[in-house]
Amino acid sequence: MALSKFKRRSRGRRSPLAAAVLIGVGLLMTGGIYAGASAAVAATDDTPAAQASVEEGEKLFQANCATCHGMDLQGREGVGPSLHGVGALAVEFQVSTGRMPMQMHGPQADQKPVQFTETQTRSMAEYVQSIAPGPDYPDEEILSGEGDVAHGGELFRINCAMCHNVAAAGGALTEGKFAPDIMDTSALNIYAAMVTGPQNMPVFSNMNLSEQDKQDIIANLIYQQEMTPVGGFTLGSLGPVSEGLFIWIFGIGGLIGIAVWITAKSN
């Protein structure tokens, strides 16, 4: 009698891992449902129906930017500069590239993962534009990439290549600063950089480069971004430094290795 009772209990007893497996499955299902719902909400927020608004931009600015730039956009000494006069384009450039909000103070703000949707970025840009007007979004024609590519290339080499490299691959500056690679930069942010002069970049007003000149430069850069390299490995497009290093290590090194091998073989 006692033996049969023990057998029945043994057959009804669950494995010690069963509870852990059930909990894991439950967590995975809950996480999957939450992720799906979040993606659906995000997609809904960025639909045309979810238009940018100054009111929403003010809330976002106060929650994420006012600590450094002040509630009145006047900035705080030693913390963040004034935003008066920077306009919507400066906000678009800094926020849509992840440079702002800044993680830590340094020689310059670097790109990092973007924290806001396009609609939220546009809302903050419109809010700043309403309080402290400055450069605003351009006509779509300027960003179309349909300018004079050859003329844009000439203007880029004259005005931009000394910092960004002829191939737009970026380059080092002084005191830990650098000109970034712009081969993945959008047409809007290229225009915004020329107009607002972020970081160490000068401002190119219409007195320096006309709107048509800017359109041609953008057309040239879009052409470079879409062009397939015809010369083989680009080696970072850093010019003779990287090419010379490659030849020194692999070319000369290979010849030395072959010479040693031939000598060893003959001995």
UniProtKB/TrEMBL annotation:
Recorded topology in the membrane: Multi-pass membrane protein
Domain Cytochrome c: 52-132, 147-225
Residues that hold heme c 1 according to the record: C65, C68, H69
GO cellular component, one term: plasma membrane
Modification after translation, per record: Binds 2 heme c groups covalently per subunit.
E.C. designation(s): 7.1.1.8
Keyword Membrane assigned: yes
One annotated GO molecular function: quinol-cytochrome-c reductase activity
Membrane-crossing residue ranges in chain numbering: 245-264
Residues annotated to bind heme c 2: C160, C163, H164
Keywords: Cell membrane, Electron transport, Heme, Iron, Membrane, Metal-binding, Repeat, Respiratory chain, Translocase, Transmembrane, Transmembrane helix, Transport
Subunit structure: The cytochrome bc1 complex is composed of a cytochrome b (QcrB), the Rieske iron-sulfur protein (QcrA) and a diheme cytochrome c (QcrC) subunit.
Protein name: Cytochrome bc1 complex cytochrome c subunit
UniProt organism field: Microbacterium faecale
